[in-house]
Amino acid sequence: MNDTKWPCLAVRLSGNVGDIHFFPFEGHPGYRRMNASIVGQEGNSKLVFEGCDPDDGEETPNIFLIPIEEIVCVCKEFFQNGGVEVANGWLEL
């Protein structure tokens, strides 16, 4: 059994949207998935997920809000391939 913790995919869900962080190896600041369909739509949205204050939520820039269907696709890619292709649609932090 492989006990490695890397690469790592972090997903936060709030209703029918969420955000995704991909960490390819330890110490890398990671990549955030961007939503190409809302590029240019400024502002933030409030996400409420386990671990955040349910009254306040957490402000997330709209550019990083991903529909749940796309999140499922990214997760499938991650588990099938042991990572994700970060060439398009990902912002390196």
Q: Outline, from the CA principal axes?
A: globular
Contiguous low-pLDDT stretches (5 residues minimum) are none
What is the N-to-C succession of helices and strands? EEEEEEHE
Describe the largest sheet: 5 strands, antiparallel
Overall pLDDT level: 86
Number of strands: 7
Helical amount: 10-25%
Query: Could you say which structural class the secondary elements and strand pairing correspond to?
Result: alpha+beta
- Termini separation comes to 31 Å
Strand content: 25-35%
Number of helices: 1
What is this entry, summarized?
15% of the residues lie in helices and 32% in strands.
List the topology elements.
Blueprint: E1 8-14, E2 17-23, E3 31-33, E4 44-47, E5 58-61, E6 66-67, H1 68-81, E7 90-92
Antiparallel strand pairs: 1-2, 2-3, 2-6, 3-7, 4-5
Structure description:
- The protein has 93 residues and is an alpha+beta fold.
- It has one domain (8-85).
- Helix content is 15%, strand content 32%.
- Strands 1, 2, 3, 6 and 7 form a five-stranded antiparallel sheet that branches. A two-stranded antiparallel sheet has the order 4-5.
